[in-house]
Specification:
The chain has 2 domains: 248 residues, TIM Barrel (Alpha-Beta Barrel), CATH 3.20.20; 78 residues. Helices cover 43% and strands 15% of the residues. By secondary structure, it is α/β, with parallel strands linked by helices. The protein has 14 helices and 10 strands. It has an 8-stranded parallel β-sheet. β1 and β2 form a beta hairpin.
Length: 341
């Protein structure tokens, strides 16, 4: 990157297997947050290279109906830049799910080896697979043999702060056929209580020849510049901050300047998009999952969150939003991380 402006670097083309993306800033694979409504809101602002779905069960994907599924659900127009994230612990079921994903026309498939939530790890999925390098490698190999679309792997440092393990795993994944890596440099038990170790991203980047997307504490354009210069990663993967500010991609790569009303406008827009895709009770549930990240933008975010989530319908949520923004809440330059847990 050297002295190149961030937006110029991020809008350089990048080849991933047999496909090209025109923007190196992507939405991180997340659970419960990367749903169709948030992706649509981000798409309306633009400025990203790829979006990732929420976590889909590999066992369920081959039989899922997108018309009724709450997670395996997409808009036809987003498929060219959409990667479907799956979790599972069996090579065969992960391969079968990937074949369905390819058949539907997704850009790629993402294998989740990073989720450290107990209910996922107890099933031997997510970050639990980092304890079993042979099995995780077999999963990558089975998927890469089953499909021709790009195969992504998102993973963490491991279960202990041993950077060499992350390096070894990265090499294993590449050897097994992975086409790109999203690396989050934290140990699995650490749910963000300590800062990510960006130096480990550099070690992973140096260990493989496939693209590496750096992930972890990207809140401000200066963070993006620092991560790229410090690690030489080929792209940036943004998760929680993209939930808090869905216009972030457009801001960093397209020069979009948000107006004073952007927070209220975006939140209200999300309420309507959610209702376009889900019934009211589930739409309200998803908005409440979004709310802590959104409220982290404000100085008195905890108080705003309490007021915002005291609602049972989307109409009540919209009323609460209008009431909150009548007082013009003070905006933080960096989010309140206590609300990002």
């Amino acid at each position: 990157m050297k002295n190149q402006p961030l937006d110029q670097y991020l809008t350089k083309e990048l080849i991933i297997k047999n496909k090209t993306i025109h923007n190196r800033m992507v939405l991180a694979p997340m659970a419960g947050l990367g749903h169709i409504a948030l992706r649509q809101l981000i798409s309306e602002f633009g400025g990203f290279g790829l979006l990732f779905t929420g976590m889909c069960s590999a066992k369920a994907v081959p039989h899922e109906n997108p018309q009724t599924s709450l997670v395996f659900k997409w808009r036809q127009e987003e498929l060219d830049t959409l990667v479907c994230q799956i979790f599972g612990s069996e090579p065969d079921s992960m391969a079968r799910a990937s074949q369905r994903i390819e058949k539907e026309g997704f850009f790629g498939v993402d294998l989740n080896f990073g989720c450290s939530v107990a209910v996922i790890c107890k099933k031997g999925c997510g970050a639990a697979l980092l304890k079993n390098p042979d099995l995780s490698s077999r999963i990558v190999k089975a998927v890469s043999k089953a499909v021709s679309i790009p195969v992504f792997v998102k993973f963490r440092t491991g279960w202990e702060n041993t950077p060499q393990l992350a390096v070894d795993m990265a090499r294993r994944f590449e050897d097994a056929g992975a086409d790109a890596l999203t690396f989050h440099p934290r140990v699995a038990p650490d749910r963000r209580s300590r800062p990510p170790q960006w130096d480990t991203i550099k070690l992973v980047r140096q260990a493989v020849s496939i693209p590496v997307f750096g992930n972890g504490n990207l809140f401000h354009p200066d963070d993006g510049v620092k991560m790229i210069r410090q690690t030489s990663c080929q792209g940036l993967s943004v998760g929680r901050m993209a939930v808090a500010r869905p216009w972030l991609f457009a801001q960093w790569t397209k020069g979009f300047t948000p107006g004073n009303d952007i927070f209220l406008t975006a939140a209200l827009r999300l309420t309507h998009i959610l209702q376009d895709h889900y019934d009211d009770p589930f739409a309200v549930k998803l908005f409440k999952k979004f709310s802590p990240y959104f409220c982290a933008n404000f100085k008195f975010g905890h108080q705003i969150l309490k007021q915002l989530v005291q609602a049972h319908t989307m109409a009540e949520i919209r009323n609460n939003l209008d009431s909150i923004f009548e007082s013009d809440p003070e905006i933080l330059s960096r989010p309140n991380l206590n609300l990002f847990a």
